[in-house]
Amino acid sequence: MRTGGTITGTVERRSTRELRMPRPRRGDDVLQAALGRFYREGITATGVDALTADAGIAKMTLYNNFGSKDDLVVAYLAERDRRFFAQLDAELAQRRDALDRALAPVDLYERYLHEEGFRGCAFVNAAAELPAEHPGRETISAHKARLRDRWAALIADLDVADASQTARACLCLLEGAYVLGGLAVDDDGLTAARALIVQRLTGDG
Length: 205
What we know:
Layout: E1 2-3, E2 6-7, H1 16-20, H2 26-41, H3 48-55, H4 59-66, H5 69-93, H6 98-102, H7 104-113, H8 122-129, H9 136-156, H10 163-182, H11 189-202
Helix pairs in contact: 2-3, 2-5, 5-9, 7-10, 8-9, 9-10, 10-11
């Protein structure tokens, strides 16, 4: 019934707060759960039941969003890749000196090493668990190759003779020290690696 251009009667209205706040996407909830569980407990040890419980969803919702656990693993690795390079870009945006910029990957790894809950490189950990034919391994390889290539571009700004080869050598030093740090074999390994990388980049030694 209309009265004076308005509708009368009982009308159920949502609050302004409810209208303005979008509902979280279920796929994002699952991915967020995977980011925590896969890194903290391992991919193989984490079952679908634990992920759906953390996300507060039904199993069918997980499969509707990702198709399979393998697809979720690929999405997890892709999200880790996206976050890493977003953080690297943020670091680079604050640096102007060419050497300081070339050391940004080292400083980022060192920051991760001292974070609470650090359990080593998420990509190396995943590679140790996934079979050779798993699609996630391609994501892992692409991540490390992308880091190598980005680093080579930064090193090229230092007028190093062979930036590509230097980036490969620096990445080997960095990754080795990072793995040892994750195993609690050498907590100061990254410090030593950084010193060697600086020598390589500046020609001092």
